[in-house]
Amino acid sequence: MTREQRIARFTENNLDHLKRDISVGQGEYLSSLASLMQIDASRQPAFFAFAQDNFAKLFPSAQTRAADMLAALDREMRADPRFAQRVALN
Questions:
Q1: At a CB cut-off of 8 Å and minimum separation 6, what does 56 contact?
Q2: For residue range 37-81, what is the model confidence (pLDDT) as tens digits?
Q3: In angstroms, how far apart are the furthest CA atoms of the chain?
Q4: Confidence of residue 88 (pLDDT cuts 50, 70, 90)
Q5: Residue 90 burial (CB count, 10 A)
């Protein structure tokens, strides 16, 4: 299984937990997602704040699916200079 597949599966299986963690900018599931995405521990607090700040874009409706959230996260990370290079390396 590729890293992208592990991220997709984790997100699908834990979307409700991730939604809650992202809404508050911290939590076990958000931390696990950051680790799966290979975001360095020193940059994770910035990633957590970034995800929280973009909550409405990541979850535009109550019916947002995991694949849609991941696509939005990828799009927003590519647009942010703090994370654009990280995403480009994936």
A1: none
A2: 999 999 999 999 999 999 999 999 999 999 999 999 999 999 999
A3: 33
A4: very low
A5: 11
The set of residues, in sequence order, having a beta carbon less than 8 Å from that of 86 and lying 6+ positions away, is 39, 43, 77
Question: 47 — phi, psi (to 5°)?
Answer: -65, -40
3-state SS string for 7-62: HHHHHHHCHHHHHHHHHHCCCHHHHHHHHHCCCCHHHHHHHHHHHHHCHHHHCCCC
d(CA 78, CA 35): 18
Q: Which of left, alpha, beta for 27 (phi over 0: left; psi -120 to 50: alpha)?
A: left
The pLDDT score that the predictor gives to residue 87 is: 57
